[in-house]
Amino acid sequence: MSSEPVETDDGKTLYPVEPAANLGEGERITVNIKGREITLFNSNDEFHAVLNFCPHQGGPLCEGLLDGTLTMEDWEWTYSCDGEIVSCPWHGWEFDIKTGEHLSKSDYRVPTYDVVVRDGEVYVVE
């Protein structure tokens, strides 16, 4: 496996993060890619990459609790998105790790990055 970035034919760069086997379900790892802290999550057997920066006050977003959320429909609460919602440890702002969207304020979102797995290595795509 390569530890150096890989250039693709379509002009993208793949940054190696971790062998997929080393990141178990529900685990995460934060890496520095081109001066940005990006956290790779293994959630529900999928990998997601999110910038480790809360747009509220700059907290380390991805160090917070990874959980689900409650939604109400027809006056009935339903738990959903298990393992897909990260809460900033500073003030509890919640973001979807798949989309980067804030759960209640659509004006706020965090950057997300595509992720690929090649030959057992997980890469963040830029």
TrEMBL record:
Residues 15-124 form the Rieske domain. It comes from the Archaea. InterPro entries: Rieske_2Fe-2S, Rieske_2Fe-2S_sf. Its cofactor is [2Fe-2S] cluster. Keywords: 2Fe-2S, Iron, Iron-sulfur, Metal-binding. One of its GO terms (molecular function) is metal ion binding. SUPFAM superfamilies: ISP domain. The keyword Lipoprotein does not apply. It holds the Pfam family Rieske. This is Rieske (2Fe-2S) protein. It comes from Natronomonas salsuginis. The lineage of its organism: Archaea, Methanobacteriati, Methanobacteriota, Stenosarchaea group, Halobacteria.
